[in-house]
Amino acid sequence: MPTDILPLILALVLGYLCGSVPFGLILTGAAGLGDIRSIGSGNIGATNVLRTGNKTLAAATLVLDALKAAVAILVARYFWGDDAAMLAAVGAFFGHCFPVWLGFKGGKGVAVMIGSLLSLSWPVGLIFCAVWLLIGFTRKISSLAALTAAATAPIFTYVFNDNIWLTFTVAALALLLFYQHRENISRLIKGTEPTIGGKKAA
């Protein structure tokens, strides 16, 4: 195996392993709230953790899910460079959404994308958060906020960075996030998507 390929593979694996840590499941289980997969939408992300009624756990899940991506990216960049960092971001996203330990059923990737963007290009990460907050507070629909922020992320990445591969990487993450929200998109079209804090699955 060429030595220049090995670091990229290691970065991808590192990202996947970090991303696959199910903090939402771990935190809710430790708090005695049962299996988060039996609540709401059944996924392990912060939005579903919020349905337990515990805002602190939901916030902790959001932060830790973002951090697990950031750690993988920063470690990969430190040891193997920027190309490896981008692959670590992709790996973390796949690990979070399709963790092998949970039968490949994980979260939807919003927090992981936040952590990835802040680590790869912090201005884009901040803009992503700002767009999410704007849509989230005005429309009260978490999925719409995430989809809007994800759709704009590749554009801002291109504007703020002279790196076409980074733009492609962010576009790939955005497409994956859209795929993970395909049921939400269907409900948005039908007008049946619940608002933030609603009891229906999202």
From TrEMBL:
GO biological process: phospholipid biosynthetic process
GO terms of molecular function: acyl-phosphate glycerol-3-phosphate acyltransferase activity
InterPro entries named in the record: G3P_acylTferase_PlsY
Keywords of this entry: Acyltransferase, Cell membrane, Lipid biosynthesis, Lipid metabolism, Membrane, Phospholipid biosynthesis, Phospholipid metabolism, Transferase, Transmembrane, Transmembrane helix
Highest rank taxon of the organism: Bacteria
Entry GO terms, CC: plasma membrane
Top enzyme category: transferase
Keyword Magnesium belongs to the record: no
Catalytic activity of the protein: an acyl phosphate + sn-glycerol 3-phosphate = a 1-acyl-sn-glycero-3-phosphate + phosphate
Keyword Transferase: yes
Stretches that traverse the bilayer: 6-36, 57-80, 86-104, 111-135, 155-179
Primary location class: membrane
Pfam families: G3P_acyltransf
Associated pathway: Lipid metabolism; phospholipid metabolism
Lipid bilayer topology: Multi-pass membrane protein
Places the protein is found: Cell membrane
The enzyme's E.C. designation: 2.3.1.275
Task of the protein: Catalyzes the transfer of an acyl group from acyl-phosphate (acyl-PO(4)) to glycerol-3-phosphate (G3P) to form lysophosphatidic acid (LPA). This enzyme utilizes acyl-phosphate as fatty acyl donor, but not acyl-CoA or acyl-ACP.
Oligomeric form and interacting partners: Probably interacts with PlsX.
PANTHER family: GLYCEROL-3-PHOSPHATE ACYLTRANSFERASE-RELATED, INNER MEMBRANE PROTEIN YGIH
Entry's family note: Belongs to the PlsY family.
HAMAP family: PlsY
Protein name: Glycerol-3-phosphate acyltransferase
Originating species: Devosia aurantiaca
Gene designation per UniProt: plsY
